[in-house]
Structure formats: structure tokens, C-alpha cells
Task: structure prediction
Amino acid sequence: MRVHLDCFPCFFKQAIIAARLGTNDEALQADILKGVVDEIRATDMSRPPAYSTTFLHRKIRQLLGKDPFKEIKSEYNQLALGLYPELKKRVGRSSDPLWTATRLAIAGNVIDFGIFTSVDIIGTIERALSGPITVDVYQAFKAALNDNPEVLYLLDNSGEIVFDRILIEVLAAMGKQVKAVVKGSPVLNDSIKEDAVEAGLNGVCAVVDNGSDCIGTLLEFTSPEFNREFGNARLVISKGQGNFESLWDDPEVHRGKKIFFLLQSKCDVVSKELGLSKGSMLLMSR
Result:
């Protein structure tokens, strides 16, 4: 997908959220908003929003001199870990643990402080488990897993990574070799190796980084090592809106592999592009 006019207010909103998380100094907050104007002015409207916001957040970190999301990332990792035992029991009691764990992974995608300032995790979990989701290709997802022994799992946000851990544990119990991918360095509240350790994921599967601080998965900026992993992968699980924005439209990305997108459509632009209502829960594949 590409940048729309309605993305521009969101760019500024993201900058405001990051500035307020990063400092209580109102003068510095204002300087940050003024400081990102050039990045917003340079937006390439033919590229995905994730491309533009990558440069936006690099500038914000430069102006702040730190990662503004570091503390809230750990806070939501711990919150999700507090939910983990009960969610794990619910998966264990389920007649179809893969179905339940997949729904929980989609529910966890509500944790996104690049877009939201508060989230209803419990309500989203119950909504994901109690009724149909908007797009659901679960049977195709299950069939693809049956056909492929290895899974490349593109992680999204901290906190959410604990929900991903539950799904990855189910995949491991099915005998799948899972390789989970984090970002190479901080951007927004996306997961890095530090989050994988805090969430206990490194004890469940192999964890690698993509060598990039980009939002989503922009293959022109990821490392050669990751690009080889991605190129060789036959089955990819892609979490979150940023990965969807950067991977959905390019047919070359999908060549020779199946990519399943697990996400919630959290903004008006993505929802309109898909012809769905905002907040839709999605398990999709091209």
C-alpha cells in the first residue's frame, strides 16, 4: 500500500506520542515536532507509510538522544507475562490449540503505542476468542503448516511478543522449526532481542534480528543475512500492520512462499484500503 493524505495527521500524531513518552520538557517536545517537518515534507507517497515513518522515528530518536519507547516496552512485556499463565491454560484446554493461539496472537496486536496511548487487552482477547474475525483463512493456514516443517515468524511489538510466544510454543509442539525475527535496533515499540529475552521467547525458538531499524520489513534496508533467510523461507507468519504495509503489495515478496498476515487494522487508511472497518481482526494471505 502507499501513503494517503490521511497519513499525514497520523505522522504528526506519532511524533506527539513519541515526544511525550520521551520527555516532560514541553519546549523539547515542541522542538521535536518542528524537527520532523522536513522528514514529513520528504514523504514519498508512492511508498508504504512504514517507509516514511521509519525516517520520522529515526529523527525523533536523534532529537531526544534516546529511545522514547524503552520504558513502556518493558512495562507491557511484564503486563503480558502476567497474563501468560492463564492464556497458556486456555490454549491447553482448547479443542484446537492452534486456532486459539492464533486468535490470541491477533489479539495481542492491539498493543501498539506508536498509534494508541491506551489499549484494552482483556476486551480484545475476549473478542478474538468469542466470535468470528473479519478475514479468517485459518484452514489454509493450518494446511500450509502441515505442508511445511519450518516457519519464519516476523515479530511486531513488545508485549505482543508474549502472545506470539504462545503461538510459537504451539507450533513447536507440532514439530515445527520456528525462527522468530526481531528488529536490529529500537524503533517505536517493536521487539528487539532484549524483548525476546524478557518475554522468554529465546528459550522457545531461535531468535534472529533483521539488521534494521525500519518499521515493518523493508527488504532494501534489512541485512544480507536476513534477506537470505527470508528468500529461502517457504512459510512466513507476518505480525502487525507495519509488516503488512511493507510486504502485502509486492508480488516478488510472495514468490515461492506463503505469507500469512496476522494483524488488526488499526488506522483508517489501512482499513479503507482493505474495505474493512477500523479495528478488524485479520488472518489473511494473498
Summary: The two ends are 14 Å apart (CA to CA). The chain has 14 helices and seven strands. The CA atoms of residues 165 and 201 lie 6 Å apart.
